[in-house]
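To close the section, here is one more complete example, presented without commentary so you can practise reading it yourself. The ligand is adenosine monophosphate.
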Amino acid sequence: MKRSIKQTMEKTKLAILLSKVKHVKSEKLACVLAIQTEALAALHDFMHRRRFTQLMPVVVAPMTDPLCHGVHDIEIDCDSQKLKLTKSMILHKFMALMSDHLSHVYIMSPCVRLEPKACKDSGRHLLEFTQLDMETKDLQKEGFMSLIEELVGYVVARVKKKCDCALRLLERELIVPKRPFKVFKSADLKARYGKDYEKIMSEKLKEPFWITGFKREFYDREDADYDLVWPEGFGEAMSGGQRHYKYGDLVRIMRDRGYDEKQFGAYLELARRGLLKPTCGGGIGIERMVRFLTGLPHIRDVGPFTKVPGEDIVL
Ligand code: AMP
Ligand code: MG
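Output:
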């Protein structure tokens, strides 16, 4: 006798599969996706109006974002070349701006980050997600922060206006944030609230705000970086900054922090030849933005096929 599909799956996996199906078929998810669709259209319109040139995603390449927190690396053998799956397109957007014919670029960039299972209950970590990744030669820190404040205000206002029904069904009330957003220094917040300062502040505040002054990847200037944080406990929305681009600075920081320079050989060669340009930018997580817009408790629920660290993946 032919075995039924039911028998071919182990019981716990089957239960997960069926709960996924329920989620995929739910009206709630359809509302979330309607809000996501409007938000994406708003983001593209905004970038287009600001004359950002859209680049296509890079998914595999010999180098990718080193990140400043540990995620598992994914390397693929391709005809004896070692290629990595993209954690972010940060280095590639800098390299695109070597062109004298491009001033600002953006990408809807897929990022694969195999985050540790300890992040399972954070409510905001996925193994794969999308960033609106932007970079410009024409703005510096304050100008870029102001651009992002405008972008966030535009997206929230448009979703509030166009997705009235979906927001009502999700019982989400959106407030269009007042500009300028508040700005805090990470050192001050850490002294006051300890290491969980971002979470505490995010839970306290009712509108998006900035935190500046981090020490992170080799390409970010510590004196000109920023994180945008969603309010109401939704946490980090975007990271960015003005960038290091001079060979001497890049090598000095890499050596100070123990980077494997060989991994970034091609990039350093471009810097050594003076081809990289001073730029400023940032990347906003789309799924986290959708979670904020919809008010969902967990990022797992923002899409049909989201993958949460430490959870069984069935689809
Ligand atoms: P990063 O440059 O690492 O700060 O990433 C840029 C943005 O992508 C963050 O500010 C988040 O909004 C989003 N993001 C980063 N990691 C994740 C993740 N594991 N799952 C979902 N979104 C993420
Ligand atoms: Mg970040």
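Once you have examined the tokens, check your reading against these statements. The pocket of adenosine monophosphate (ligand 1) is lined by residues 88, 113, 115, 125-126, 129, 131, 236-239, 283-285, 287-288 (CB under 6 Å). The chain has a mean pLDDT of 96.
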